[in-house]
Every structure is written in structure tokens, then in C-alpha cells.
């Protein structure tokens, strides 16, 4: 068969790339090859395992999200591509010739080399099958060990604990959510998890996962923790296999792309988890395996593959994580990252109630802003608190970083105030943090 | 007595002006004259009347908020000022000579000339006494009539209705929240109020408030509505009496100030409800009797009276109103205002769930963005939905207006996404509205 644009991969990057291309030029013939039928909303998988959401509610049909947009969907797998002949072959013996190729091949869970990692009931969490199995096993289990204290580890751990399991999270770094937050913000998360009874082991490596056939315990530097199952949430790695085969240049975190989401090969675009993003602030490669990045890059890749010329504004990686009644969010550089990059900086802290103090449900919200010292521009932020107002503040601060907002802009930031909805007029934590930073300069 | 800075008025503008001046130069002698002891958080008054919050919880002592900052507080009233001699006299026969004067005299409720407006149980809502009386009377009443369908009218009406009263809101304009929202957004509010059983009368004037001594009914263009009490919430007018006396230039909406919050007289500053703000977008005078504006202007007036030179970024009037389980917010110009100003514009609409669809508590959130056609810059926004995420989106859009954000910036806006906290990655309503606007250009 022949197609104008071939999209390999059916995650958010591929879907949005296809929809965008079709929106720009409805005449284009667009074909998407994806491994499995249906689209699972991956961020919701922990909630299915926790029993708060049904698996069926987080799976959408290909038809609904892709087919109805006039894109041909093939549930199949591309096994080889001849770049010069612009032809792809699939597992089901299809031959597809294309004009332009969009690689949206995603990422694979990283599995550390630990003895016993192939035992039964050792899981990673990526697709619907993983989710179903983890739900089934955890429904009858008592003890869970989670290897990796990143966002997925923290969320799965919290939801399993809410379900009543004994949960241990073991993380080789000295803090939870390492790389994303400064230590004092990670510690706020740690404190909540510990208060809720999660056993948090930091700076410790797993020696072995032990058991006959099923997992029975996890050995962590001498300590032995009983485990009915293990979740490995040690991050993901870009799936660059096809890209490498056809000769795309590959970077440390994935397929190299420019600001138009073009790879090093003509007419080949990449987007989403398989692509290597560049930091808006440092201009250096940065890992960014987020659905939101995938959507943004999908838009750019799709538009440009359809003949447009849209630019990607680079990555500030806004993200947010929820656990029990709390949430934490981050964007841009942490203080540590600014220091490691050799960027002279100043930080500011702000803390206040997220509603007027007289409102019963008021909860504390606190944030830390990182500014480049010379330009006084915002380069990073971390926000912690109850579940209301964390993600939107991160969104605001993401826009602020992209628009070059300075300390003084935030000191004079014109926001709204309402007893039920926001802090008192003179206690907005973003403004307090900016004022604090100004005092430290 | 002698003081470096005399502040007349003890609302948010005066308090923040004093605190800011003291922060800049702790040696300054600062004196504040205020009418009543204590500081009431005025936005919370409707919640006290509704019985959700206690009056004591929204009153702070002068000591806590002013005295402890090293500012001398006099509960008294300035009755006259000799500008040339830089001396003020008070009701309690104090004579205060000053170097610099900050007028933060606030605003007074506007009372339309309606027959019967002096009857017992006809209230306005401004100070603690009003709040206490309205709480007491409404606790035993059945029927309330609210004259004026602005933010205060809508909030007091909703909270009285929640308390079980029969509530009529009568508004002379053809829509609720007139001037702040376009008609189709006001109608969303109207629909909620009607669904909850509030009698909303639009485009109608009150002929008379009737009764012997107490209010008994309100006559509205022939219709007679039973009323145990009446709340007049017809807006406020800047209190410019003292300013006029000493010869400050007065504008349509209050004391004229420049971007340094200086009045037309040397060494005299004004801030808050008594001052006339200028629009960031049109550069024209605009009413802005919000606590948040008062705080911003207080910072500028205080800093500059203390010898600084800070500039006020002009007004975009972000604000938000809550009623029952809903909230609505706005910032900048409405579509109608853009049209009336002769600014060529394009609008865009976006609507989506505020959480992932699989989350049980997900609620719709919808917004309308107004862009200047030529520059594609954001000049206005309106957001409606449940109570989560309205005010923070308005804050974000306020910052966006101030930073000259364009349609394309918002189409490529890098935000976070999380099942429990935010819309799906490709359904952020701000992005959807920007994409919609781009399609309409």
C-alpha cells in the first residue's frame, strides 16, 4: 500500500501528529501502524490498580481517537524500513511505501539487572496487560515492594497503600523524585508517605528479588522485605530501534530532533518519548518522557510533515504528581540543576493557605522559585501542597519561564483573590516567593 | 504630632502601603488613621451571612496586621487637611503634621434613589456592622430581595439561597455581572442560579421598597415581591472627599493617579478603591474596586512614598466569583468591550473536563479568549466551571496579557497533565480556545 505519511506508533505523539497533519491538509493519506488495538491513558493506570478507576474507562477505541479523523489504523508492527526506497515492512507482511515518516515509537520500561527480575509477579507498568495483572495480583496481596521512587513509584505506592497493602518503596538515589525536585521538596513527599505508613528506603540498591517461582521477598542491602509482588518503576528508555536501523542520529535521551521535530534524515520526523528534547533553558538534551511533551511534539511533527513550518518552543518539563491528599509539581531547573549548570541563581520561598484562613478546607501551599541572578528571569519552580492549585500554578510558572518573566514581574503579579478559591490578596505564594528572592539578591 | 507618612484609611491599600514603606525604610515614622478598630476581610462577609464562616474569623486586630509592623494606628477620622501646611485634623482633635500623605480612603456603597431605601432592614454590605446585622436578620427571614446582580449580589444571593431563603435578584442591566462578562458567560451564571431556585429578574428597575417601618415587599415594574429584608449591592463609588478638598484632580472613577500612584499634588499618593486605575490594554480609566488592585497599588504607593520609584503595571482586573458548586472568572476586556473600543479582535472557545474523564469528580470547564486581531495578543478571557482551576487559570491569563502572549504561544503552551488534577494533555481548555481562535483568523 501507499501512503503520504506513515506514522509508527499510536501513543499521544503519534495520534496528535496524525490529527494535526490531517487538520492541515485533509487530502493527505495518513497511515498509522500501532502494536495493540485501543489507546490506554497511561497516567491513569495507577488509579486502576488502586481500584479507583475502571480499566475500561481509560481505554479508548482506535476508531474514536484516530479512525474517525480519517487516518488509516493498522494494528501491526513495523519490522523494517528501507529509507532510500521509503518503504516499510510489517510483521503481518504488509509493504507500505510512504513520502514522509513520523517516528513515534515511544519508550520501554528500564529494567535494572537484578537477580530474580524474571520471577512471576515482578511487573513493570506500561500497557493494559500490565495494569490488568497488577490490579488482579494486588487485589489479593498483602505486601508490595516498589523498585524506583520516581513519579510512578510514588503514585503506585500511594494507591496500593490506600488499598491497604504494606508498601515498601526502595530508591537508589538519596531522595524520592530525584532529578525532578530539590531535596527539601522531595522530603515533603517522603514525610507524607512515611506518615501514611509506607516504608521508604533511600540510597539503597536491591540485591535480589527472591522466591521459587513467585516473588517471596526482596533483599535490600542485607534487609529482607516480604513481597507478594514487585513493581519495577525505574524509568523508561526511548525506543530508538527503528530510527537507528535507518540511520537517524541518536542522542543520549533518544532520536535527535531539531526545533521542527525533523530527524537527521530528510522527510523523517520524530516526536514523543522516542525523541530527544532540548531544554528551553540550557539548550542541552534533557529527558522528557511526558505525555504533554509528546502532545506538543506531535503537533509540531504532524504540522511540519504536512508541509507546515511550526517551531517547537523547547522543553521546561512541567509535571505534577499526586499522593494521598497531597500533590507536588515542578517546572524548569531545580536549584541543584542550576548550580550544576554553573548558572548563578537566586531562590525565593513562599508559603500560605490556598484559601482565605477562615475557610474550613484551607490547606497550605508552598513554593520555591529559582531565578537566574543576572537577568532575574525565572528558570525553575517547585510547588507542594494539597491537591488544589498545584498543577495550575506550575502551568502559570511554565508560561512565565517561556515568556522571560522576571522577579519584579511576579512581585507585581496581578492575580485574583477569593475566599473559597485562592489565598488572601497579599499572600499568593508565587508573589511571596518572588519578594523573598528580591530580598536575597 | 508629627509623622513622615500619614496614611488615611486602613483597608488593604493602606495596610500594604504602610507595610511596604516600613519595609523599605524602617526608620520612617508612619501613622495610619482609620475609622474603625480591626480589619475585616470584606470578601468573606457573604460567607458569614451564609453561616459558613464566623464573623470573628474574618476580623483581624490592628495590632496583628499594622501595629506589629511598627506603624502607629489611630482609630479616628481625618476631618480636614491643610495641604500647604501639610497638616491634618481629626474628629478627636488631633493635629498631625506629615511629610507625605497616602490617601487610601476606599469607597462607599452606591445607593440608588429608590423610594423606601431608608426603611428598616434595607442593607448595604460593607463593614462588620452590616455583616452582623445581615446575618442576624437573615437567620430568621424567609424572603430576601437583592438589588444589583454584580459579584456581591450573586454571592450573597447564592449563600442566602443555600441557607434556605427565597431569594430574588433584580438587576437593571440585561445580564448578571454586567460589564465584567459577555452575555453568554453571564447566562451560565443565570442558569445555575435559576436551577437552584433563585428568582432572577433582569432588565428591570425597582419602583419602590415598601413597608411601614420594616421592609415588607419590593415593587418591581408592577410585580410585588415579598421581602423580609433587602440587600442593595449596586456597586461602590470611590470616596474622594478629602482628596477633592485639598485639590487633587479627580477622574470619573476616583482620584487621578499616575503609574507611580502619585496624585496631581506633590507628596500626595493615592491607592486602592479611592484611586482611579488605568487599563493596561486601553490605557483609559477603568473601575477597579478589587482588594487585589488595592494591594498592588498599596505596594507602589508605599514604596514611592518611602523614596522608591516603582511602577504600577496597569490594570487587567482579574477576578473570580463563586456560587453554589460553580465559579466564573474574567480578566482584561470582554468581547463587547473590545468591540466598543473599536479594537479588531478574534475570539476562541474551549471546553473540556477539568480532570481526566475516568475520574469521578471531573467537571466541565469552559473558556473564551479574546485576542487583538492585528497583533494576535491576548486581551481578555472568561472562564466558567466547577470551583477547581478557575481562579488559577484567570491568574495565568492575567500574566499572559501583561506579557504580551500571542495565540501561537497558547497553542504551544507547555502545561502539565495529571488524571486527578488537570484535563487530558490534549484538552487543556486554554489551548483549545487558542486553537479555535487561530482557525477563525
Please describe what this structure looks like:
The structure is a homodimer of 441-residue chains. The first copy, chain A, is α/β, with parallel strands linked by helices and 441 residues long. Chain A is built from twelve helices and 28 strands. Chain A has helices spanning 12-24, 45-49, 62-65, 128-139, 151-162, 183-195, 241-246, 291-305, 335-340, 390-402, 407-411, 429-440; strands at residues 2-8, 30-34, 39-40, 59-60, 72-75, 78-82, 87-90, 95-103, 107-109, 122-123, 143-147, 166-171, 199-202, 208-210, 217-220, 223-226, 229-232, 236-238, 250-251, 254-256, 268-270, 275-278, 285-286, 319-323, 326-332, 345-353, 364-372, 378-386. In chain A, the strands form seven sheets. In chain A, strands 1, 2, 5, 6, 7, 8 and 21 form a seven-stranded mixed sheet that branches. The first copy, chain A, has a five-stranded parallel sheet with strand order 10-17-11-12-13, covered by helices on one side. The longest helix of chain A is centred in the C-terminal third of the chain and has 15 residues, at 291-305. Chains A and B meet through α8, β24, β25 and α10 of A and α8, β24, β25 and α10 of B.
